[in-house]
Amino acid sequence: MQVLGIETSCDETGIALYDSERGLRAHALHSQIALHAEYGGVVPELASRDHVRRIVPLIEAVLREAGATLETVDGVAYTQGPGLAGALLVGASVASALALALDKPLIGVHHLEGHLLSPLLSADKPDFPFVALLVSGGHSQLFFVRGVGQYELLGDTFDDAAGEAFDKAAQLLGLPYPGGPALAQLAGQGRPGAMRLPRPLIDAPHLHFSFSGLKTAVLTLVRQLQHDGRFDEQARADVAREFETAVVDVLAAKAFAALRQTQNRQLVVAGGVGANQSLRARFAEEATALDVRVYFPEMAFCTDNGAMIALVGALRMADAVHDYAFQVRPRWPLTELRTVEKAV
Ligand code: KG4
Ligand code: ZN
């Protein structure tokens, strides 16, 4: 069974073809980074228009690469939410139009379920149940994943998401959008321990996060350094290094506490912040020491992509509809999803 996946929830057009027997056949991505860079963030209207421009050529490219045709596609999956309404509508309308024209089933996929299950795209994948740390631009959450659609929320952020904190701290350091990767690069030149920032809620007896205080601490530190005339290249890198370490410390403390709490030995790290190399190294090191396994999606499937949407579409073929009057869900709690009894 072959499912075409379409992702347009934010600033990346992602298309993929997933075969339930043979795995991922092909995938393609167009990132809008260059388009939004001069505005310092995603401009929703420009994002929607760019999805319109890219989506059909990318679908054609993926089918060509997979040696497939529209006729051989068994179902069309698209990101139904959460995300930017206008951007979601582009993927939803193209997916619905395709499914209608081909008389094929249509599957509306939850973007975060895509991130949560993205490690299943790898050859070495976790078994259910596992603990998942979802760290993206909009989310910092810990889930206990019992199966497809069985997501127990263990921890959430009280304010900013981890990726959002990276992006805001990057802005304070004068780095270009998107902030996370730029800050991580600068942190590479920073000296460990040269600056000091707080680790919010690291010792709290629960699994929730809070990153807005950390952002304020970066602002205060940057102002102090500027006031003292010490805000040079090395100081910027030192702040970036300390910020990155602080976020990774908190994420690691909570994620490994979640493993202890659920008495589980498999941790999945998903979402854009999971692309961070310091985080990967730190989690891998701690996992070895604690004799647990950490699973990261392949780098290409950490940030937004079509492959994770096609995968979830294949797992949720039972939820497919032949009703093409679509609706997007810019806000959509993950815990509202239906359980899939038999999957993978
Ligand atoms: O999952 P994602 O691509 O989009 C959603 O938010 O759904 O995540 C994007 C977030 C951004 O905040 C970005 O700055 C962050 O992930 N990010 C990183 C890195 N790569 C992406 N943060 C830290 N280090 C990175 N290498
Ligand atoms: Zn995402």
**The CATH architecture of the largest domain:** 2-Layer Sandwich
Instruction: Please give the order of strands in the largest beta sheet.
Output: 3-2-1-4-5
What kind of sheet is the major sheet? 5 strands, mixed
Helix content estimate? 40-55%
The proportion of strand residues reads 15-25%
What is the 3D form?
A: globular
Kindly state the number of beta strands.
10
CATH fold-level topology of the largest domain: Nucleotidyltransferase, domain 5
| Rg estimate, integer Å | 20 Å
* CATH classification class of the largest domain: Alpha Beta
User: SSE order in H/E notation?
Assistant: EEEHHEHEHEEEHHHHEHEH
Number of helices: 10
Bound molecules: 5'-O-[(R)-(carboxyoxy)(hydroxy)phosphoryl]adenosine, zinc ion
Mean pLDDT: 96
Class based on secondary structure composition and strand pairing: alpha/beta
CATH superfamily of the largest domain: ATPase, nucleotide binding domain
Gap between N and C termini: 13 Å
Give unreliable regions as ranges: none
Number of domains: 2
